[in-house]
Amino acid sequence: MPSYYELYRTSTLGMALTDSLDELIQAGHITPQLAIQVLDQYDKSISEALSSKVKAKAVMKGNLRTYRFCDDVWTFIIKNPTFKFDHDSASADKVKIVACNARRPGE
Amino acid sequence: MSNSIVAAIYRYVIDDVVRNVQADFEGHGVDTSVLEELQRSWEAKIIQSRVASFPGEDAGNDIDNATVDGASDDDDDDEDSGDRANDDLDGNREAPEDAINSDLDDTDEEDDYEGGAEETEHIVLCQYDKVTRSKNKWKCVLRDGIMLINGRDYLFQKATGDFEW
Hints:
The complex is a heterodimer of chains A (107) and B (165).
Chain A: H1 12-26, H2 32-52, E1 57-70, E2 73-84, E3 89-91, E4 94-101
Chain B: H1 2-27, H2 32-49, H3 58-90, H4 96-99, H5 103-117, E1 123-134, E2 137-149, E3 152-164
Helix pairs in contact in B: 1-2, 3-5
């Protein structure tokens, strides 16, 4: 069974799940092994939801401050980024982009 | 538009995860009530972070009001100790009325403190199809991403990036 990227665990949804699982482990209601199984399932659910349920497209522009390519993962720090969506736009003073290779699903 | 979809996607992911781990919970001999507690705790945290609008989020507003009140109390103490320090350094016995003017400086600190609680890292988690560079112009083709910008979540299936180094 192919594994999925654990990258999305640091998103809001993933961190909320991790925190909730940690609370249950601290209370002794679940074991760490069960928590890992839940997170593995989360990796699968979020990956499939993003690739099949989301249709939105975005355009990003900005100044590339730093870039790093290590272990097949790109990390960019963008200064003064602007984001454009279908009916929305946003900007910030700095953003970090972490991108895994789309060609391989896991490992 | 992608922000209202976020709540629906999160709802789907939460339900999908809970449905699929039910068998794992039973295998470990853990009661279903624990799974329900996990789901409730998970949803509560998402609503609390206010990255997407969910129906029925009354609890979130109360927590925000409490935070604001707490911060104000702390700042009053800072003002008093700051004024006393200024008087000692100057060596002059200035009237307390002059010292009151310095509270303008403390107001800035108060804003920073409250802003710190809402601080977002502005991050994009995604996968890349292609990353190319020409001189100092970088072009990225990205897919399946979650973005956290200005305290809100955005999702995209495809994105392009044009950056100058």
